[in-house]
From TrEMBL:
This is GNAT family N-acetyltransferase. Residues 1-153 form the N-acetyltransferase domain. InterPro entries: Acyl_CoA_acyltransferase, GNAT_dom, N-acetyltransferase. Pfam families: Acetyltransf_3.
């Protein structure tokens, strides 16, 4: 079950970001509570996204938090939505990232003005790359990782961008996990 992330979910996000394994390809180290609070204050301050049906969703399975997913707009590029997700290690390898990413693509394309969905990850993050490919995104770019990501595993391999156009999207009909 997905529902919009609320300020009351901050403790869940702090716990998630405190796990070094979860943060391996994000910043290469766990994030502290103040850092996570600042991250989520910024994310939840996008009321224009919410009005369009975009934003951040918390996922729960049998009442247990299993991560967050997003479909958010790009500043100055309202025709593009970026998708993202972050799951605790207990949610890895169970198809949850794929299921949630499909929901985010569906959510983004339900906004009449979104023409393209994009995502990026570290080139070395094969798990995340597999999810993006399963949900229909295709790699369109690669670039060097920014210098402040040197502590991230695989930073020398750079980052990769994926995309899916509205015209290229078909609603999934079968289980892809």
């Amino acid at each position: 079950m997905l529902r919009p992330v609320r300020v009351a979910d901050l403790d869940l996000m702090v716990d998630l970001n405190a796990d070094p394994e979860v943060m391996t390809y994000i910043q290469g180290r766990p994030a502290g509570p103040a850092e996570t609070a600042a991250e989520w204050r910024q994310r939840l301050d996008h009321q224009s996204d919410v009005a369009r049906g975009l934003g951040y969703w918390a996922g729960f399975e049998a009442g247990t938090f299993v991560g967050w997913w997003s479909a958010s707009s790009f500043k100055g590029q309202p025709e593009i939505s970026g998708i993202g997700y972050r799951l605790p290690v207990t949610g890895w390898g169970r198809g949850l990232a794929t299921e949630g990413a499909e929901a985010m693509i569906r959510q983004a394309f339900s906004c009449g003005d979104i023409d393209r969905v994009v995502a990026s990850t570290m080139a070395a993050n094969t798990g995340s790359r597999r999810v993006l490919e399963k949900v229909g995104l295709k790699q369109y770019a690669s670039w060097d990782a920014v210098p402040d990501r040197r502590q991230v595993v695989g930073w020398k391999d750079g980052e990769v961008g994926y995309e899916l156009s509205r015209a290229g999207w078909t609603e999934p009909t079968a289980d892809r996990s």
